[in-house]
Request: fold
Amino acid sequence: MSSGHEKLTVDATVRTLQSVPTASNYAAGKCETASIRFRTDGTDPATATGVLIKADENFRIYGNDVLNQIKFVEATSTDAVINVSYGIDNSGKHGVEVG
Reply:
């Protein structure tokens, strides 16, 4: 069940998700146009630091706290676009899955 959507440009500035619905604890997304990196530990990612999500790769984020603290940055000098759909997940998973 989807409860929202966001399209975010990820560039050299560290970005966070901006439109997380209050009731959502899950997001499914796709990285488009270029690779990005993310971190969920409160530290800013950098071009060479953080978990890589390649262009055209899908990702899933579980947990409202993770949705609200995940940070993204471009992994190359090319801006990326991510499209994210928000919803509710009752699986008990927590964290981020890539692929």
